Fold these 2 entries.
Entry 1:
Amino acid sequence: MPVIHSHAAGIDVGATSHWVCVPEDAVAEGQSSVREFGAFTKDLDELVEWLLKCQVKTVAMESTSVYWIPLFQKLEAAHLEAVLVNARHVRHVPGRKTDCKDCQWLQRLHSYGLLNGSFRPSDDICCLRSLMRHRDNLSKACGQEVQHMQQALNYMNIHLHHAVSDLNGETGLRILDAILGGEREPKELVKLRDPQISRSTVEEMEAALRGDWREEHLFVLRQSLENYRHLLKQMEVCDGELEKVLAKVVVNPATVVEAERPKNPPAAEPKSKRQKRFKKLKAGTGLKRDLSAELTRICGVDLTRIIGLNVLGVLIVISEIGVDMSRWRNAKAFCAWLGLCPGNKISGGKVLSSHTVHVVNRVAILLRTVAPAVGRSDTWLGIFHRRMRARIGPAAANTATARKLACMIYHLLQYKEEYIDVDCLIYQEKIRKSRIAKLCKQAEELGFEVIKKQ
């Protein structure tokens, strides 16, 4: 097999040490081409110096947990090409599996050009991604504290969280503050409810606020509420840091060949060309600042016009994939990377499996999550979701709709075009023609002829 990368190295990444293998002709005669380095910063600097001394130009390394990140950044700073490899793709090491053999196997495969690098966005997007993932952890921690408050209320047989839509809403928090302030009379607590509440009547809420007040559960309720509000303050600080990072994101100019630009579908009648209005929530873990203008500057288009995506959703998408769509060959490759395409596991001419590949991707999770809401809309994508749901079930329909959304995101970011809402009548006519063609084909196979009614 011909050698593609003659100056390639392989690194087996570990928690406490890294094993490195370089080509045999890169070291002096009698010296080993495999060395072990520690995981401290001083050891990483020595590792990079040794690679430069051996005239290594490209390095393949396994994506082991998060231990590869400091080493990857050191290699990038030294202007070495670092190829991050999925450990599942190179796990079949011949012979006994050891760290020493792993790095030799990586170096050998990489020298033959058989390894594909994993996706890693630019450094400014990586900073944004770290903050968004931290914000997601804070949001989940807020949800846990709300569950602790609900559990404390259940122990006291207080059904406030059943009488209001959200315990962490304005009414719920006012009543909780009054309870922790010493108020126990249901008639007084009910006066704090919002007049617009429709989940329960005044009498039902008053009955829900009668229970067994116990000091130990009130203590848990107080601490959970304090933790919840502390996490909200932390989230506000995180949102402020997000704004600073967004301002530093570099916008790459679009380079599109007009011959490669696909033809746009027919648009619907423009009802009103107004943007989605940002809703500032007084309570909860949503965004308190409108970042739509900054996101439009970064993306070049307004992605919030896509059905089902709001400002927070667009922020999650950009923080995970960036705005450079040239990293994928086309929209199909992008959807396959997200794990939204059917598999094609075939052996001996027989299809063994066509299930979608299991991929843990935050963008794919987001698109699958918004798919049911899209299916309830009166748009062409809502029609598509309902058709798929009736034919292949809700789970597969969510995946199919998520793939459509992914194709839209790719197209808008790649070609910098405004979102076009497809005309529902044209889409339904296309479905009608497809059904007629299918019916004519079935009739012909059965020996019949379809005649159009005059």
Note: Residues 258-422 form one domain.
Entry 2:
Amino acid sequence: MNIHIKNIRILAAFLMLIISSCTSTKRKGETNAPIINPDAISVDVIVPEHGMADPHAWVQNDTVFVICGHDESWEGKGSFRMDRWEVWSSTDLKNWEHHRDILPSQTYIGDHPNCWAGDICERNGKYYWFFSNRNINTGVVVADKITGEYKDLLGKPLLPKGIVPVHPYDPEIYIENGEYTICFGVNTYYMATLAEDMKSLVTEPKAILVKDENGEEVSTDDKPTLFKRNDWYYLVFGSRYAMSKNLYGPYDFKGAFLSGGHTSFFDWHGQKYVLQENHDISAFYRGASLKPVFFNQDESIYIPKYDRMYPAPGRPFEFKNSTMGWKAVNGTNLVFKEGILSGNIKQKNAVIQSAPWLYTDTRICSKVSFKIKNNSDAKELKFAIYTRNQGHEFWTKGTEPIGWNKQQWLTIPISSNDSDFVTYSIDLSQFKEVNERLMQIALQPAADTNSGSWEIDEIMIK
């Protein structure tokens, strides 16, 4: 009997050792696992097909306010032409209300499309929007309410050209213990303390070092953003980030952040979120994504496998709200109604084209499909692409209109006089030349006829 009990005890101890070992192994493998909030909200584009860029958030009375830039046109008339700033708000992160435009003519900028990124904050009952005059300098406007009306505080730049060795633009305001710090610049960031009246700096701008694991300096993008969590300061620039125990650094470069452009962080109902710039219509007619931010156990930022910069990996043209930048070039008109593009054909080889600067990565896209209804005798659809490789002056060159007569056109047989929509597809590999970035596409929806009409439900690059 005692032997039996002893054996049971030995077996129980052995089982406990196995369970403990398994638990220890499991915990060891999961020591850096993040805690994911299943109720966190994600939105691909908070205001679709609008040209919202550089979103900057401020939370007040359970309402999220956003001041953002606005891309002037989806026709890509020039490099990052931004014609105004806009004030928006939401009480649920899903439905957004527009309140006001802030025009460059209301500031020292004058009538120039230079409304680049900024940041919003409150101090002593007034609201301050620090803004970029393109990449030239930084100014500030002030209002009694966050929704405005805003007035130029100085009538000149707060951060003039030459104040630091880099371009003094893309400001970020970080608030801690009643002290307001402005961070700005490109390649190397600078920080300084703002005076209480927000009209000047009370400290000289100090360069902020971001270093890699070998101690080498890391060159940063423009538009820094800052937040603090558990005694760590996070410095985020585009889709990269660094961390430090001190606001003024040095910062240790950590690598990739969530995919996207300029960022703005805020806390909402116990969850940290980021508003992040995307390529909603194109690289020059952008949008803002809302993403939850999660952290690993070692305080680093968790990057989900499914993370992407909208609309990657491809580009959907579903025409839910607008033409999405599509227009007629010749031989037809183009009308948008209830999610459908349509046109009447006036001559053979009538051409319609997408917005330029799609900036779609052809290395991860292989096919284009068209859901079309041919209301004519035409038996052919034709398709052309314009692609470019990234290189020197990529963002400042190539904004002129495309000559589609110089591009290769591929022919796709189609049915005539359709009673319903039909889907066709083509592989990009059929083109003789496909460079890194798909910049624009064009279509002859009913190529071999000079009468009738066409309708398009969607075009998908995938």
Note: The chain has two domains: 52-312, 316-461.
